[in-house]
Amino acid sequence: MKKLYLASTSPRRKELLKQIVGNNFSIISSDFEEDNELKVSPSRLAVINSRGKARAAAEKLKSGIVIGCDTFVWHEGFLGKPHTVAKARQTLKKISGKVVKIYSGLTVIDVDNNQEITDVAITKLYMKKLSKQEIDHYIAADNPLDNAGAFKIQEKGALLVERIGGCYNNVVGLPLFMLGQILTKMRVDLL
């Protein structure tokens, strides 16, 4: 099997990738700078960012397969990491009782033959209607200040999501089914 590289330092992406390839990959940094203010559709933004990350990492290699991914939350616009309790409270109030979408751009590059495949995964989350008290308790319990959309579905944030339409792993940060399909097209044996 060709050497796999994940162009991400996200611990969640690392754990997800490990589910399908074990420890048969390395982390490679990507110095691509995202611009989440671009006036493009959310799908196009996800593609631009994942391609940029994967290509910047691939330029550092002579051989192997690079996986680049960009995941974000979208509801009436881009919802980034809140970084403050006030911003987290504002974000959770905004998405309370609403349907939000999680977009992941996924770009995989085979450096050896210059093959590149890009796709976009979209998952709908049907959020619970939250009281002010529930929002405050959630922020105190899960500390979601460094998470897009101000929640972590893989932890207590699961209590905020009534149902999911699409890939759960996409919400965590890496759409594994889609990645598996792409790697299979590139003749990477996963099963």
Number of strand elements: 7
Instruction: Please state the CA-atom Rg, rounded to the nearest Å.
Output: 17 Å
Tell me the CATH topology.
Maf protein
Ends: how far apart?
Answer: 12 Å
H and E string: EHEHEEHEEHEHH
Q: What's the number of domains?
A: 1
CATH architecture: Alpha-Beta Complex
List the helices and strands and how they pair.
Elements: E1 4-6, H1 11-21, E2 25-27, H2 42-58, E3 65-74, E4 78-79, H3 85-95, E5 99-110, E6 115-127, H4 132-142, E7 161-165, H5 168-172, H6 176-185
Parallel strand pairs: 1-2, 1-3
Antiparallel strand pairs: 3-4, 3-5, 5-6, 6-7
Describe the structure.
This protein has helices at residues 11-21, 42-58, 85-95, 132-142, 168-172, 176-185, and strands at residues 4-6, 25-27, 65-74, 78-79, 99-110, 115-127, 161-165. Helix 3 (85-95) crosses helix 4. The model has no long low-confidence stretch (mean pLDDT 96). The protein has 6 helices and 7 strands. It has one domain (4-185): Maf protein (Alpha-Beta Complex), CATH 3.90.950.10. The chain is elongated, with a radius of gyration of 17 Å. With 191 residues, the protein is an alpha/beta fold.
